[in-house]
Automatic annotation (TrEMBL), chain B:
May play the central regulatory role in sporulation. It may be an element of the effector pathway responsible for the activation of sporulation genes in response to nutritional stress. Spo0A may act in concert with spo0H (a sigma factor) to control the expression of some genes that are critical to the sporulation process. The modification 4-aspartylphosphate is found at D56. Gene3D superfamilies: 3.40.50.2300. Pfam families: Response_reg. SMART domains: REC. InterPro entries: Bact_response_regulator, CheY-like_superfamily, Sig_transdc_resp-reg_receiver. Residues 7-121 form the Response regulatory domain. CDD domains: REC_OmpR. This is Stage 0 sporulation protein A homolog. Keywords: Phosphoprotein.
Amino acid sequence: MLNFIYLIIFILVLLIISFLVFLSVFHLKIYFNNRKYQALKEKWQPVLFGYLNNEISLNEATASFNKNYKYTWKFIRTYLDNLDGKDFEKLKNLLQASGFIQYYLKKLRTGSNKDKLKAALILGKVRHKKALPYLEEMLKSDSSLKIKTAGQAISQIGETSLVYEIIKAFLVRTEITYEGISQILILYGQKICPKLLLIIEDWLDGEVDIRKEFQTSPYETIALFVELLGHNKYKGALPVLERLLKEVDNDELIIQIFKALSRIKEPVDLDLTPFINHDNWVVRSQTVRYLYKNWESSYSEQLKARISDENWWVSFYSGMALYHNSFKAFLEEVAVSDKPGSEISNYILEAGGQFEHF
Amino acid sequence: MSDKNKEILVVEDDELIRGLQKNKLEKAGYEVDEAQNGLEAWNKIKDNRYILILIDIFLPKMDGFQLLKNIRSQEIPAKTIVLSSKSQDKYIKKAFDLGADSYLTKPFDPANLIKTVRTTLES
């Protein structure tokens, strides 16, 4: 019995020692990796700055960066994220000359799944066009993570010929939310807008069946496109947004259109009366908010009426639009009256029309 | 050299980017001091006379907005340029409301950074 207890104790001690050895080795590995990286960083930083400032040639800079691409990536990714213009291009040239880009291009082609994901992430950040055929292939995968990573990399590279394929892959074969898709497609910048307009126009003309193609609600999909047009403040979207307002009767989409119009800041050539008086208060408030940001004097009487709207936001944006467009006296008049808009008029007048978040 | 002579203060929590900004500004002929968080920056601002402060919005300990508020409430006579990522452009208005003189988005072109510093100092 005693021997058995000793045996158990011995095994337990052995397990604890093994665990401690494993932990120590793990920490030592991290420590030495960090030390190595710090040493490389100290060496590379002046070389990189000298190269970016044209004091060191490409050949000299390349010679300093060794073939340990894991450390190169750790060092360079912050610069790739934060630099633009000539310095970004120089950085790309350096990565090309040092073999870094070719190394990850090979990983993207022939590496393991993990390697491919990392390579896609890196080549997207470097905006390397030669990665596109492999990223397009990756987009056809069944793995949500692969599709997302490939879509993100293509968006960063800015290849607009694949916009349709990315949207389709995201909507049909992943669980990414509309917000998530928007965050990725934003990486395209304004470049994506003409493509989105084409899809919207095709949908309006009945040439694309979004429900069938993307297996999702057409209104939500078009609302996503409208949000991106607004985010990019794309003035060229105006005629299509006007057409949508004329031809589509969907509250969520109308709301998104007025949000986009508020950002684009261009006057719409359309009678806004039905939207100012819409049954849905969110439609009313977003229309009035648009008029606050894009004043049109022809609506002043309607806005005066909306200051007594039953909804606080509609009333607030009507008041703000009037206050900032030479109708302060009207608010002062309402403020001292017993009319429904007196409370909001007082609120706006007291703040001098200045509210941080509106 | 005493800190009293520093011209530009770079406030950025990322060491690599702070180093790059400092290097680019020094190459353009400015004397540059640096701080890695808002609190360190505020302590330096109280003790030194900078002509310009380059502020990242998201900083540890004290964010860029609070730093701007402090600078303006204490009437520190330094110009300020705020730096933030493109996706956070909604903060531009807030930065200007708090008294920022100029704004730059990340990713940034260092040539544009120098140009903005020059025009801000001339304005």
